[in-house]
Amino acid sequence: ALPRDGGAASPRFRAYTEAAAATWALSAYNPMAGAHVALAVQTLLAMDAERLAAEAAADTAARVEAHTFAESREPPLRLAVVVLSTGYWTDRVTTDSLHRTHGEGGWHRGLVPCWSHEPVTEALVHAQAVRETARMLWEAVHGPARSVRGVLAREGVAEALAHAPLTPAPEPHDAVDDPVREAVAVLGESTALADVVAVLLGDAVAEAHGWRPLGIAADGGVQLARSCARSAIAQRGARAVLLDGAASWLDARP
User: Fold this and answer.
1) Helix 220-236 / helix 148-162 crossing angle, nearest 10 deg
2) Which of 44, 132, 175, 240 could be a cystine partner for 49, CB 3.0 to 4.6 Å?
3) Residue 172 has what pLDDT?
4) What pLDDT digit, counting tens, does each position of 45-67 carry?
5) Under a CB-based contact definition with an 8 Å cutoff, are residues 178 and 220 in contact?
């Protein structure tokens, strides 16, 4: 709501860069974004999105019994609801791919992403907050996920918890699952972003980056990891699955 008059010297620019750069240590931000971003921000404020995200984080932490394995911080979990907008330096595919794989600077830092020009709903904020909380808790235990197998393990837990309450896992689809399993057997320890993205998100996203396809359907790795995690959580509980450093549950048939 601050005026933009004066460009970089405007109150809006100064207030925004202080919050983004000093408080959140973000390097990708746009203090002069257009009306569609302001509308998304206003929608989030109207639904009290920060409260929704905080409640989702608390519920997720309780679900995995985080107090039993994560060292307490002040505050223990810190999230930021972030509005993203495609533009000269923000490509949708690249940004989503990085966030769902290696994260900002190699770690997940509590960013709850919502895109302008797309519907912003309470369900979206809740699911994104659960995913990011699960990622942060997983990395608090195991360190940042770098390998294909590590990212699948982390994202499987994040996706399963975001779809709680758990319902019976769907029947596996071998035509989708088998190429992912084969890729994990060969590339499971690879930390190359090209391999991680291709296995997790599929051929179309890999090719959009100019990387080799692996014969994997859209979100093939996400689907397999989510299905395996849901089955494992139903049998062993969310805490045990998150703490499983070897992610043995990834090898089980749902």
Assistant:
1) 60
2) 44
3) 54
4) 999 999 999 999 999 999 999 98
5) no
